[in-house]
TrEMBL record:
Lineage of source species: Bacteria, Bacillati, Bacillota, Bacilli, Bacillales
Record-annotated PAC domain positions: 186-237
Keywords linked to the UniProt accession: Aromatic hydrocarbons catabolism, ATP-binding, Coiled coil, DNA-binding, Nucleotide-binding, Transcription, Transcription regulation
Keyword rRNA-binding among UniProt keywords: no
Domain Sigma-54 factor interaction: 262-491
Coiled coil regions in record: 228-255
The gene coding this protein: norR_5
Pfam family, one: AAA_lid_14
CDD domains: AAA (cd00009)
InterPro entries: AAA+_ATPase, AAA_lid_NorR, Homeodomain-like_sf, HTH_TyrR, P-loop_NTPase, PAS-assoc_C, Sigma_54_int, Sigma_54_int_dom_ATP-bd_1
SMART domains: AAA (SM00382)
Name this protein carries in UniProt: HTH-type transcriptional regulatory protein TyrR
Length: 567
């Protein structure tokens, strides 16, 4: 029977003999349209839910309880052998049973014939149906029982004919596929479906089954939803706003980078500055080496400012300050749904944001090995692929890396990739520590003292004795430590002159002023002490994890404090 695939409703078996009361209780308990009355393996008949409720409504509940079942019951078209009984040819429904008391379907065997007859008698019926679908629905898409697309009304979907919805879902052409969900659950489904271009549609998909319950077709209808359109517009607004915020952050970083000075007076730094100028004009990778606090980021900013990318983004990333499990998504970004907790719409990574600009990877030695592989590919191929993405995007950016570690030693220890090391170490720039360029100390002292005097509206000065003692100090924290000492001097000082009598070893920890000075604000003083502790801990640590262990706090606390004090 070819028309056996047209299902009416689900049903349930009720053992014979039974009563109207039993059937009414089943109707309250179960959401099914048909009640099949069966004695052993023989089907006695069936009762339609709507017919039963109509009778109860017409005559009342009490009277309905006394009705004979024959008054409501219809007989099946098929007997238990599956043959049509000649005396029952006018009956137009039969049942399919999976197991006792569980009905797969009730089937209208004559519906196909009636539809065919109706179409034959009215030549405009197909045109009417086509007009209804095209005007009330945005799109109709039909697949076979395996998910292969056999029909599509929208021109944009014509390209998918013959393709499989499961493959298209994996390729993010549209996702999550409501059709694929129907093929998995076997039920009618609806939901929002996203496309690769960012559009959002409301989809409802309905399965068509054969006479043994297998899905042979899935019809998916795209609804013309003004609510979805409004949500899509709002989503685009949020994306545009996020992009503008990201660009604003980049602009602020750019402005900040242009203000970072490159202060020196020594011959060593003059030679280094000449090297920076010659390297800046060539679009090559640079590896900056030096102890913590020597000014590696300042050198990176200077290279960017002197390069042809000076008006493009400069983004600095501290590889030691980002948790390992977040670093990949921070650098490469991710697509929506790539992992649990992924942001709606995905995220643009640093490499994409810095397109046409410069990325400064500080503490590159802290990058995990699996990310070193991906970074090497970015450097070689000039392409980047988001987490969960299927396509690589071409990018044009310059990488400047920096570290205070011995990368050559790490290569021998197999904790840093040799091929990445040579790819980064095209032009090495080694910044000597402050103790090896004493001439720079005086220039830096006067620069930062003047800077903080202006910032805090002070007029603090130092005498010759103090200057000599400062120049003789070893400065283990390098320029960063000197900067913090000058800031503390500007904040805590009161008189117009500055003298010092304490031992040189205490110079970096205390600032002694005249007896007439006013006491500093407690919180200001505590913050300065906290900064100094962080500076000293950083000089003795390889990364933020070591600092956290040294100071007995969480790594997140160290990262937050370093960011607070711009250390």
């Amino acid at each position: 029977m070819d028309n056996g695939k047209y299902h009416i409703r689900n049903a349930v078996y009720i053992p014979w003999s039974t009563t109207i009361e039993t059937i009414l209780l089943k109707a309250l308990e179960l959401d099914c349209q048909w009640f099949i009355l069966q004695e052993n393996e023989k089907t006695i008949g069936y009762i339609n839910r709507s017919t039963l409720y109509k009778k109860v409504k017409d005559i009342g509940f009490e009277k309905a309880l006394s009705l004979p079942l024959e008054e409501l019951m219809m007989k099946p078209i098929l007997n238990n052998d599956g043959d049509i009984s000649s005396s029952e040819k006018t009956i137009n429904a039969s049942i399919l049973k999976r197991e006792f008391e569980k009905i797969e379907s009730v089937i209208d065997w004559n519906i196909g014939e009636r539809i065919s007859n109706h179409i034959a008698s009215d030549k405009w019926i197909l045109k009417e149906l086509e007009t209804i679908f095209y005007n009330f629905f945005h799109n109709i898409l039909i697949t076979d029982g395996y998910g292969n697309i056999t029909f599509a009304t929208a021109e944009d979907d014509q390209q998918y004919l013959g393709k499989n919805v499961f493959d298209l879902e994996r390729q993010k052409e549209f996702y999550p596929s409501v059709t694929a969900k129907v093929l998995s659950t076997g039920k009618r489904e609806q939901g929002l479906q996203y496309t690769k271009s960012g559009e959002v549609f409301e989809i409802e998909s309905v399965p068509i089954k054969d006479n043994i319950g297998r899905i042979v077709r899935v019809i998916s209808i795209t609804k013309d939803s003004s609510e979805v359109t409004e949500l899509t517009e709002k989503l685009n607004e949020v994306k545009n706003l996020l992009t503008s915020y990201q660009q604003e952050v980049i602009s602020i970083q750019q402005e900040h980078s242009n203000k970072k000075p490159f202060i020196y007076a020594s011959k060593e730094m003059e030679n280094l500055n000449n090297l920076i100028k010659s390297v800046a004009s060539f679009d090559t990778t640079v590896l900056i080496l030096g102890e913590t606090g020597v000014g590696k980021e300042v050198v990176a900013h200077t290279i960017h400012r002197l390069s042809n990318r000076y008006d493009k983004p400069f983004i600095a990333v501290n590889c030691g300050a980002i948790p390992e499990n977040l670093m990949e998504s921070e650098l490469f970004g991710y697509e929506e749904g790539s992992f649990s907790g992924a942001r709606k719409g995905g995220k643009t990574g640093v490499f994409e944001l810095a397109n046409n600009g410069t990325v400064f990877l500080d503490e590159i030695g802290e990058m995990p090995l699996h990310l070193q592989v991906k970074l090497l590919r970015v450097l070689q191929e000039k392409k980047v692929k988001r987490i969960g993405g299927l396509q690589e995007k071409p990018i044009d950016m310059r990488i400047i890396a920096a570290t205070n570690q011995d990368l050559a030693k790490k290569v021998k220890e197999k904790t840093f990739r040799e091929d990445l090391y040579y790819r980064l170490n095209v032009v090495p720039i080694n910044i000597p520590p402050l103790r090896e360029r004493k001439e720079d100390i005086e220039a830096l002292i006067f620069y930062y003292l003047e800077f903080f005097n202006q910032k805090y509206n002070k007029n603090i000065e130092i005498n010759e004795l103090m200057l000599e003692r400062l120049k003789k100090y070893s400065w283990p924290g390098n320029v960063r430590e000197l900067q913090n000492v000058m800031e503390r001097l500007a904040i805590t000082g009161q008189d117009d002159s500055f003298t010092v009598n304490q031992p040189l070893s205490l110079l970096a920890n205390e600032v002694v002023m005249s007896a007439n000075r006013k006491f500093p604000q407690l919180f200001d003083f505590l913050e300065k002490a906290e900064q100094q502790i962080l500076v000293e801990a950083k000089t003795k640590s390889k990364n933020t994890r070591d600092m956290a262990n040294l100071l007995g706090v969480n790594q997140s606390t160290i990262v937050r404090k370093l960011k607070k004090y711009n250390l």
